[in-house]
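Title: Prediction job returns without error message
Component: structure pipeline
Severity: low
Priority: P3
Assignee: unassigned

Description:
Job completed but the reporter wants confirmation the result is attached to the right record. Sequence as submitted:
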Amino acid sequence: MLVLKFGGTSVGSIENMMHVKDIINNGQKKVVVLSAMSGTTNALVKISEYIEAGDVDEALIVIDALRNNYNKTITSLITNTEIYQTVFDYVNLVFTTLETLVHKQYDVLLYNEIVAQGELLSTFIFSRYLQQENINAALLPALDFMRIDKTNEPDNFYIQQNLNRVIAATPDAEIYITQGFICRDAEGAISNLQRGGSDYTATIIGAVVKAEEVQIWTDIDGFHNNDPRFVENTKAISNLSFDESAELAYFGAKILHPQTVMPVRALDIPVRLKNTMSPASYGTLITNEVHGEGIKAIAAKDNITAIKIKSARMLLAHGFLKKVFEIFERYETSIDMITTSEIAVSLTIDDTTHLNAIVGELERFALVEVDDFMSIVCLVGNAIIFHPDTPNLFQILQDVSVRMISYGGSNNNISLLINTSDKLETLKKLQRYVFENDGVLA
């Protein structure tokens, strides 16, 4: 069995839905995981923000506009009269429900219920479209089997038991359609795997069904060797290891959710990234195998905050770092990069929710400096720290103000902390040195 996930742009138009139908309709048994149609989740988040602000009228305006968009879509996509009426009634029910939710007290549970509607809409509409096209498909509600535990991690035992149960209930189906992103929490309330979590849903399912391969279909033909939004002439990477892909996803490559590879790597289930608009392209295949050495890709992560913690008492104080890390642990704030000297620790975070409280506690025993508008530029490849030409990177970047360097923490990753204002030029310089002009590091 295969598991295929299609992102929001892949189901974001009638033409794209037809592409997806053609891709999956090949006689092979599979689970298809769908995101919300492009733009839907952003609109639902905006509705939630208006509710939180007490602006019911603005929330209703967004709901009405979104309803009109969906009605146009189903009118063009669903031509069978009976099926159209079923889809129309479902879409109308969803938006009527949203209209009632705007009058409720805002909290996280309400937010989760609202943003879940996007995936529920896309999967219902697409499954009925397949029915219209006489394709043997069954809709598997993710809320019947996908659950996270009290630590917000996938409840693997629950998922396995219940996913197998719902699949067994429709054994003759050729294609199973389900929602990405959404799940239930440990108390049974609607929750989610955070933005981009549909990738994660796909590999969780892939691990449960022991899939031959998990395919992530988007609007780009795999991981590129640099960010195509900022750098010209980037190329798709044909093969990556799980380690390399995890580094790239965590440090800014938007094509893949950072946690995607975790459920399948131990089972050695390949993950392939494919382009919905170019299905014949090879894409990027991610496995446990390592292909070659040198830098394969460059990624950048924005919205980074750097914190320098300086204290003369740090010298020879064996409990100093423990004291620092306990503060970040208490506020559930992850650290991306860290460097140390005899009297100071510098580190970076990408979540500033509890920054003021963290700084307040650190200032009880140290001087603290905070710098924002920073970016991490990450270079990834197998054993790149051992490449003889790697030190030349720092010659190339001599005109860039590099605040921190992470070198040697992983054989596959070199990370540089720079000002966000220098990011574009840094990516272009690295592109020229590494991948162009007979680059010696690629």
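Comment from assignee: result matches the submitted record. The chain has two domains: 2-219, 297-434.
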